[in-house]
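User: I'm preparing a small set of examples for a lab meeting where we compare how different chains pack in three dimensions. I only have the primary sequence for this one, and I'd like the structure in token form so I can line it up with the others. Please keep the answer compact; I'll paste it straight into my notes.
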Amino acid sequence: MSDYKINIPKSIIPLLVLAIILNILRIAIWGKMSFVFIPWNIFLAFIPFIISSLLLSFSKKSNPNKIIFTLGFLLWFLFIPNAPYIITDFVHLGIVRGVPVMFDVFLLFSSALVGLILCFQSLFHIEQIIKMKFSSRLTSLLMGLIILMVSFGVYLGRFLRFNSWDIFINHTSLIKNVWKIFVESSSHTEVYLYTLLIFSFLIISYKSSKYLNIK
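Assistant: Understood. Below is the structure token output for the 215-residue chain.
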């Protein structure tokens, strides 16, 4: 197991501590429990990061088991939308009265940054894996496709309220809703609008994060 490395980005530690402290203060000072889901969302953001870290280490082995790798990648693919999903939690801003909006701005922003850093690091792991097999150009195309599907997953989570595990426990409803979106595309224009909006933000931010060398 020592061959498998999980290096948590140091840059998220202060942000993670800040997000947790702000959530505790929110409860202690104003008695509001409405944002207790934030730590859970942050926990879900860690899952794809851990999986991609293990996949990267696994792929560097001489003869990695293709079945295990494929299953790991599919599991990663199911959970990766949870990392950028936290940015959509800003829809809750200003809904709860009694808490200063500016306080919630910093709580949500610090939490969203943790999710985004984990998201980009996880995507970078996958990009490194793809580069081992394909050219840089094809890798860029595949990463763009992956980020597009991740964006669609964020939409499904925010607006249709599906979770990553619904593919196992509620797959019939999930498949029906996704099928309906593509069959009745003319009546679901907001799907494409929001998916494109999320995609634009994620792919530009991901490219920028690599130049910033966030670790």
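A couple of notes for your slides: The chain has one domain: 12-212. The two ends are 23 Å apart (CA to CA).

User: Perfect, thanks.
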